[in-house]
Write the structure tokens for this entry.
Amino acid sequence: MNAQAYFKVEGLHKNFGGLTAVNELTFAVEKGAIHGLIGPNGAGKTTIFNVISGFYKPSAGKVLYEGESIGGLQPHQVAAKGLVRTFQETTLFQEFTTFENALMGRYLHTEASMVSALFGTQRKSERANEEKTMEVLEFLGLAERKDELALNLPHGLQRALGIAVALTAEPNLLLLDEPFAGMNPEETRHMMDLIRKVRESGITILLVEHDMQAVMGLCERITVVNFGRLLTEGTPDEIKRNKDVIEAYLGTDLNAA
Ligand SMILES: Nc1ncnc2c1ncn2[C@@H]1O[C@H](COP(=O)(O)OP(=O)(O)O)[C@@H](O)[C@H]1O
Ligand SMILES: [Mg+2]
């Protein structure tokens, strides 16, 4: 890896009381990559995302984006720099439409309140926000569903809408937390296409995911964590053959991927 990585965490620690969820973790992501971050349940993946995106402060260590230290910034400050995350659980406003949910992404990652998002009190930029929102919905194939309530969308499209909420914030680096969770094979294939398309649009992706087929199919490099520590890193083929990884995933058939 080059001296100044596009994105890097260095010696990162996160403790919760006596529990060390992230331990001396260092890894880097190249610009333009789809980079996988995998590990068994409880390995610390979501905590890593929470620290990177500013939801938690690191206990120690650095988060570096284009050489700049961003560890400990507030979530809206991190988002303003172009790092935007999605959530492991669906966090849509179920009673709002597809369009309203996606539009919210324009505000959720800023200091502006949801009230101003919904009632358009920020009139100045309202039009631009709506245009950007429609552009994202078209990009993700959700435009035809724009007036449907989120709760009426099938699971796969709800997850795609979760990505739309992030994309309307115009990220450079998108952090996806288990976007394939609960998907059937067809939904999985569709989501893989969407993620490739997002990357082709110039957005770097850090992907946390349990679906090995998706991870192996999408990522050029994969970082494996276990008990909050770096286990190994490599290409999908290297990871599939690594005996420490196989042991950490005991019972999971990595070769099915
Ligand atoms: N807010 C928190 N408070 C206390 N412990 C937490 C908190 N968030 C996560 N943990 C613990 O940190 C560890 C890593 O969790 P998590 O990051 O959710 O793992 P993963 O996403 O890899 O499944 C787990 O032991 C979890 O219980
Ligand atoms: Mg998690």
Notes: The longest strand covers residues 19-29. The chain has two domains: 1-82+171-257, 96-169.
